[in-house]
Design a protein that fits this description.
The protein is of the alpha/beta class. It is built from twelve helices and 14 strands. It has an eight-stranded mixed sheet, with helices on one face. Strands 3-2-1-4-5-6 form a six-stranded parallel sheet, with helices on both faces. Helix 5 links the parallel strand 5 and strand 6. The longest helix is centred in the C-terminal third of the chain and has 15 residues. The N and C termini lie far apart (about 45 Å).
Length: about 325
């Protein structure tokens, strides 16, 4: 067997073109073997060696494929993940990994039953801005954390032309679109909250789904974490705000990877992932206030694919753990009720 993981992609929309295919062809551990294109056959121009199947069923019968990436609309994730696991494939599943705790438990039980791995695609752990936030938190420079706010704001009053994003079905709405990203980042830093409160709302004219949400997560030691996103935020505030007993840290959302990938930049390009916007670290000491601008690490989604490769080929622990995903789904389901 080749050491490269033969991989199939279930869709070739923006996710497939931007967040998946470029890494399958630049990471030496993967072979971009095939994808599903039901009508327009576009991938051959960029990836002539990839087989274009007309249906998911055809791709799943390809015996060479070991890993399937489920990057289809949210309400299809569970059904397609079941099919892929039952076909004996490992699965890399885009967010949300489930639309309920019961669905989450069912899919992971099936993965254990079939002896396959079910791995979550949470690429924003490898965003440049979040990586510097992690560095600041883990450094302890802020002292005891009191208040943390993570935001992901946009101004998009028009309804999305993609109908599945605006139809009231399981997994639709902003909560299940950007909520998983934000909650995954928070949980990866602070774990499971002791208590949580939520607010959701729908404010765009004609909207059938939520376009605003906020969580208040309470942790041991008095830490309060606020997670917020809205589609009618005309003037965004800093996306990462942390206050502790010794200082504060503010950072805008400035990761450049999505924009670079949309422009066709290769993940191997020297400029890829370089974030020129530093955050502001303000520390209070015996001699007064000190302001520092920590350098922001390079963003690199290749780190996620490296983790997938190491997990499948060498049994290394996958950094996005099952219990963290369960906690995330508990919060999302609670917020949806």
């Amino acid at each position: 067997m080749s050491t490269r993981i033969q991989t199939g992609l279930l869709a070739y929309g923006m996710s497939g073109k931007v967040f998946q295919a470029p890494f399958l062809t630049t990471h030496p551990g993967f072979e971009f073997r095939a994808l599903v294109e039901r009508s327009r056959k576009e991938a051959r121009h960029a990836y002539p060696a990839a087989i274009s199947y007309d249906s998911v069923a055809e791709l799943l019968t390809d015996p060479a494929i070991e890993l399937v990436i489920v990057n289809t609309p949210n309400d299809t994730h569970a059904a397609l993940t079941r099919q892929a696991l039952q076909a004996g494939k490992h699965v890399l599943l885009e967010k949300p990994v489930a639309t309920s705790v019961a669905e989450f438990e069912e899919l992971h039980a099936l993965a254990r039953q079939t002896g396959r791995q079910l791995l979550a695609y949470h690429n924003r752990r490898w965003d440049s801005d979040f990586q510097v936030v992690r560095e600041v938190v883990e450094s302890g420079q802020l002292g005891q954390l009191i208040e943390v706010s993570f935001r992901f704001d946009r101004y998009k009053p028009a309804l999305n032309p993609k109908a599945f994003k605006e139809t009231a079905v399981p997994g639709s709405g902003l909560l299940y679109d950007l909520g998983p990203h934000l909650l995954d980042q928070v949980i990866s830093l602070f774990g499971r909250p002791l208590r949580s409160r939520k607010t959701t709302g729908s404010y765009r004219p004609g909207s059938q789904v939520d376009d605003y949400f906020t969580f208040h997560l309470e942790y041991a030691g008095g830490l309060n974490v606020f997670v917020t996103s809205g589609l009618l935020i005309a003037e965004p505030v800093p996306s990462f705000v942390l206050h502790g007993t010794r200082g504060s840290f503010l950072k805008t959302r400035s990761d450049v990877q999505e924009a670079q990938l949309l422009q066709g930049m290769s993940p191997l390009a020297p400029a890829y992932g370089l974030d020129a916007e530093p955050g502001t670290l303000t520390l209070m000491g015996p001699e007064g206030k000190v302001t520092i601008h920590p350098l922001t690490p390079r963003g690199n989604y290749t780190g996620l694919f490296e983790a997938v490769y190491q997990s499948i080929r060498h049994g290394a622990p996958y950094p996005i753990r099952e219990e963290e995903l369960r906690w995330q789904n508990e919060l999302l389901e609670q917020a949806a009720e």
